[in-house]
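Hypothesis: this fold can be encoded by more than one sequence.
Test: take the structure tokens below, design a sequence, compare later.
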């Protein structure tokens, strides 16, 4: 989960393990990410699974195509999934070098290669830099919280407009927000201002309060039958609860 945009003192990464699951923490008891030790390809945390709801907008034959970008590395669950399971070209941007080091030592994050690039940088600055891939990204996952997990550290209309500039015409962005906080509606309004309200959805909050927003650039919205077929395919191929995502998915505004 953790990635921050401020050059303050960066927290140290610590590790805990329970019942075969390894957890990442950053100076607090808050869980910043998790991995099943014996099955590292499994996406453990429910909200991280829901960050992958962008798969519902991708045709069967395009699930593994394109460029995936993550802003905020967490315990590299999404990075492992897009790079290893989907075998997509993957870029992850994370400010804290301790998080990157912990992921490479404890969370099966490999070294950079032809499919993986891990960038140690401020996500906001990276989005505005020449290094950011314009109009080419198929899937963008944004999970930018500080070590206290209180609120997104990058959450204004300009930031979301920068995110939109990365996406290809069929690109999709997912964002981790807290749906039980008053800031949720403000965040959704900012995303809608950058993407358009008719291009924005959200999933019902998890028990912990995480709400995943999904925004599209110009991707067509599937009809219900096609969405159902795609959910069936995602569950069969990847073991993700995509049918449940459909039950929890709502257009914005409510």
């Amino acid at each position: 989960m953790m990635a921050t945009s401020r050059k303050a003192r960066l927290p140290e990464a610590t590790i805990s393990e329970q019942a075969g699951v390894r957890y990442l923490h950053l100076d607090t008891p808050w869980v910043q990410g998790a991995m099943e030790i014996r099955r590292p390809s499994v996406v453990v945390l429910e909200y991280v699974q829901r960050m992958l709801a962008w798969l519902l907008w991708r045709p069967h034959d395009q699930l593994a195509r394109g460029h995936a970008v993550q802003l905020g590395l967490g315990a590299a669950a999404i990075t492992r999934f897009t790079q290893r399971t989907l075998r997509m070209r993957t870029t992850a941007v994370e400010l804290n070098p301790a998080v990157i080091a912990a992921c490479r030592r404890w969370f099966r994050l490999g070294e950079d290669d032809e499919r993986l690039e891990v960038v140690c940088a401020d996500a906001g600055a990276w989005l505005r830099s020449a290094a950011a891939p314009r109009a080419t990204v198929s899937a963008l996952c944004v999970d930018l919280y500080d070590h206290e997990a209180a609120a997104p550290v990058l959450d204004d209309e300009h930031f979301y407009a920068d995110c939109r500039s990365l996406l290809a015409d069929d690109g999709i962005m997912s964002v981790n927000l807290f749906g039980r906080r008053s800031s949720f509606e403000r965040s959704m309004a900012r995303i809608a201002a950058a993407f358009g309200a008719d291009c924005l959805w959200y999933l019902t909050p998890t028990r912990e309060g995480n709400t995943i927003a999904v925004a599209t650039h110009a991707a067509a919205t599937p009809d219900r039958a096609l969405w159902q077929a795609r959910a069936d395919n995602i569950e069969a191929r990847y073991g993700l609860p995509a049918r449940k995502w459909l039950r929890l998915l709502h257009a914005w505004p409510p």
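Residues 224-238 form the longest helix (15 residues). The two ends are 27 Å apart (CA to CA).
Hypothesis status: open.
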